[in-house]
Specification:
Blueprint (H helix, E strand, L loop, with lengths): L2 E3 L2 E5 L9 E5 L11 H22 L3 E6 L9 E6 L5 H4 L16 H20 L1
Antiparallel strand pairs: 1-2, 2-3, 3-5, 4-5
C-alpha cells in the first residue's frame, strides 16, 4: 500500500514492469467506472491523475500511461505506468501488456521501498491541501 486517497487506495504493482507501476483501487469496490455516481467518478479520476503527478515527480517519467479495463477482474481499478525517454527502442512505444511480465522484477520493499515512500509522501501532502 502506497497511500489512502479520497476514492480508494494506491498500491504498488506486484510486477514492476516499469519502476513505479501502481494501481488505484476504489474503496468501496465497484464493478466499473460507470457504476459510480458523478461525484465518485470525478473523485476516482482526479485521484488517478494525482497519482500520476506523484509518479512523474518520484520517477522523473516523461508521461504516465493510464489504463482501466475490468475484463478479467470485474472490479474497477486503474493501472498507472510511468514511461521514460530512455526506454529501449523496442519497448518505448509498446503498450505494457505487450511486454513479457514474467521478466519484470517482483515488488520488494528492499528494491522499491524508497520509491514507494516518495510516491506516498507526495500523495499524502497533496490530499491534505
Amino acid at each position: 500500500m502506497v497511500a489512502k486517497m479520497p476514492s480508494g487506495w494506491v498500491v504498488m504493482g506486484e510486477r514492476q514492469v516499469f519502476a513505479g507501476y501502481c494501481l488505484l483501487l476504489p474503496d468501496p469496490v465497484v464493478p466499473h467506472l460507470n457504476a459510480l455516481a458523478d461525484a465518485g467518478r470525478a473523485q476516482f479520476l482526479s485521484d488517478m491523475a494525482m497519482a500520476g503527478d506523484a509518479l512523474m515527480q518520484a520517477t522523473a517519467a516523461v508521461r504516465i500511461n493510464y489504463a482501466i479495463y475490468g475484463n478479467v477482474d470485474p472490479a474497477l481499478h486503474a493501472h498507472l505506468f510511468p514511461r521514460h525517454a530512455n526506454e529501449p527502442p523496442a519497448t518505448r512505444t509498446a503498450q505494457p501488456w505487450a511486454l513479457d511480465w514474467s521478466l519484470a522484477p517482483e515488488y520488494s520493499d528492499a528494491s522499491y521501498g524508497e520509491l514507494k515512500r516518495r510516491i506516498g509522501a507526495y500523495l499524502r501532502a497533496a490530499v491534505r491541501r
